[in-house]
Design brief:
The protein folds into 2 domains: 168 residues, HUPs (Rossmann fold, 3-Layer(aba) Sandwich), CATH 3.40.50; 93 residues, Pantoate--beta-alanine Ligase, Chain: A,domain 2. Helix content is 38%, strand content 19%. Helix 8 packs across helix 9 and helix 11 runs antiparallel to helix 12.
């Protein structure tokens, strides 16, 4: 039977010593993407802990925080079906007690791309993830590649702060039509849901172009943006092609690159990405 711990003391009592522990941090509103992380954690560890905490410090818009879906009973059912033994569901006072005054910032990665659009967002993410890694002391922690910049920030902070938990990246899980799974998708109208497919379509299109031998990153980036901007219901935030490790802009994709996109459909902001591969054995066209 699944155990729900609401305090750090309860959590520590629920984790037996001498076991490998897989941690999957979540904010609830679970979908198949989360379930895939949980199942992998179950396959690779003796015990799976899923944290469930809607973290206010990573929301730029208070309305977005208030509207974030919360259904502990539903999330607990999905978690148990996916192999979770322990849910850590702390309240605000457990995570940010009176007098809490520390912020974790990964300086080179937090203020660019997604961070430029959402100031302070990644400080909130880095701080809460650092706390969760320290609280659970997990062997492995699992994060989806859809939030690619977040993944790179977490990898960096664990390295820099000598946190021993191994960070395990997991592939994007998509709907049958290609839309990246997100807790925000349920807020799309049918028309917006259809329009949102432009993100995955644009990413695939740019990879197809790269496959013909076009490796110029700025040219590919322009095509990426234009493909999204022709969708009337999409308001483009950014379309960028950057280095997969340090997220700096690149001139070409000769040594690999990642395309990152964000756009708003109605009131719902979505992100997506795709690793771009240069054309093997083709002459590079500029």
């Amino acid at each position: 039977m699944i155990i729900t711990a609401q305090t750090i003391e309860e959590l520590h009592k629920a984790i037996p010593s001498g076991k490998t522990v897989g941690l999957v941090p979540t904010m609830g509103a679970l979908h198949e993407g989360h379930a895939s992380l949980l199942r992998r954690a179950k396959a690779e560890n003796d015990l799976v802990v899923m944290s469930l905490f809607v973290n206010p410090t990573q929301f730029n818009d208070p309305e977005d925080f208030e509207k974030y879906p919360r259904d502990l009973d539903r999330d607990a059912r999905i978690a148990e079906e996916s192999g979770v033994e322990v849910i850590f569901a702390p309240n605000m006072e457990q995570m940010y007690p009176k007098g809490f005054d520390t912020v974790v910032t990964v300086r080179s990665l937090s203020g660019v791309i997604e961070g430029a659009s959402r100031p302070g967002h990644f400080d909130g993410v880095a701080t809460v993830v650092t706390k969760l890694l320290n609280i659970v002391n997990a062997t492995h922690a699992y994060f989806g590649e859809k939030d690619y910049q977040q993944l790179q920030i977490i990898r960096t902070l664990t390295r820099d702060l000598d946190i021993q938990t191994q960070i395990v990246p997991c592939p994007i899980v998509r709907e049958l039509d290609g839309l990246a799974m997100s807790s925000r998708n349920v807020r799309l109208t049918p028309q917006e849901r259809k329009a949102a497919l432009v993100l995955s379509r644009a990413l695939s299109y740019v990879q197809d172009i790269a496959g013909t031998g076009v490796h110029d990153a700025y040219q590919l980036q322009a095509w990426l943006a234009q493909t999204i901007e022709v969708e009337p219901l999409a308001t483009l935030d950014y379309a960028m092609i950057v280095d997969p490790d340090d997220l700096r802009e690149v001139d070409t994709i000769d040594f690999g690159a990642i395309a990152l996109v964000a756009a708003t459909f109605g009131k719902v902001r979505l992100i997506d990405n795709k690793l771009l591969k240069p054309a093997p054995g083709r002459e590079v066209r500029r």
